Amino acid sequence: MTAREIDEGMRRCVRLAREAALSGNYGLGAAVIRDGVVLGESGSGLVQGHDPTAHPEVQAIRRAAERVGSRYLTGAFLLSTLEPCPMCTAAAIWAKMRGIVFGATQDDARAWVSGHPDETFTWRQIDIRARDVVWAGHPRLEVHEGVRREECLELFALTARQAPVGGAAGRR
Predict the structure, then answer these.
(1) SS3 call for 124
(2) What's the pLDDT score for residue 169?
(3) Whole-number pLDDT of residue 171
(4) Strands (E), the chain
(5) Is the pTM of this model over 0.85?
(6) How far apart are the first and last CA of the chain?
(7) How far apart are CA 59 and CA 64, in angstroms?
(8) What is the model's pLDDT at position 90?
(9) Under 8 Å CB-to-CB from 85, ≥6 apart: which residues?
């Protein structure tokens, strides 16, 4: 994946995240891209849904696999506005993807939460970095961290501002 494709893909993820935040969800967005083609994408729908595995990264992988008619997405990259959790990273490994690209890190999410506690938008994290999951898996994916990070950091505040009055039932 070229630097230009990564940049354009991350811009797309930020747009998806903004749309999700405006709909009352977490400001998260993800896409699966191969050879410059978006195979699957998703903004967060966690707050309205009841599926705890429906992270935007997993949704994007599911849509991409359906589109190509295979559980393997060889050569594809998973792009996300936030560092994928161990479940999402493992899904990329199981799909035999080429790599993961993300903007904000787990540490960024924890830092946001420490200053902005919220019962609905908890930004919970499992303290295992994506690169550590990748290191333990096979195939070993490429990991590109901090891409368009500043824009991705802004999504935390956008989520809080767009939260519906009274909150909603859901957590990440």
Answers:
(1) coil
(2) 38
(3) 39
(4) 29-34, 37-43, 77-82, 99-104, 142-144
(5) yes
(6) 29
(7) 9
(8) 98
(9) 55, 57, 125, 126, 130
